[in-house]
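Troubleshooting: if your tokenizer reports a length mismatch, compare your output against this known-good record of 258 residues.
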Amino acid sequence: MTFAGLESGTTVMLAHGFGCDQNLWRLVASRLEDRFRLVLFDHVGSGLSDPAAWKAERYSSLQGYADDILEIVEQLDLHDVVFVGHSVAAMMGVLAVAKDPSRFAKLVLLTPSPCYLDHDGYTGGFTRADIDELLESMESNYLGWSRAMAPKVMGTPDRPQLEDELTESFCRNDPAKARVFARTTFLSDNRADLPKVGISARVIECLHDTLAPRSVGAYTHEHISGSDLVTIDATGHCPQLSAPDQTAAAIADFATPA
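Known-good structure output:
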């Protein structure tokens, strides 16, 4: 757990996505810390979290991660939290808010996807064969998968240092835990949970994102009542690294009390 920024005022909790850790928020955090109280953490099984806390059964469902988020805000006695979830952590936030909205004021979903699989009338961006191939590749050669996948996720061939950073982040994770997290991420379907969000919400998407195309951003926005949608002029799935100014501005504009 890391605390940054102001000692009081609006609390912004930053939650990272699959294969990452809280360090990937550093560029956004440095742009927010003069206005907000920041709380950052590593999901169990990622980063510097306690390896002994990880249980495959609990984390084979996104609800396990959502329950962790609720435990954090309860143990820290946080109120009126602005929860910012990147990628799959956006759906963790949806589940946490749906289960207990009492400690949350606002929800920010950064490049979210409620379902990565295509269904009738819904374009998630991947077929079941695509996902099966991805998971099989992870199973057979996790490090090789990491080196091949990170550039596609980051989408910044003009800035290879960002792709290298994401590759290193992937490779730091325990392969066995990462495979469970990946299966949980890519096979979850949280479309029915979106209407359960009863607090103010903002969806932030990128102009070009291979993992969460704009049709997914539009779907998420349409199914969370009263939400708004912000499109960042950026490419890739990790704008907190590739477009930190725009990402921080979109978060701050929404998180700042009226």
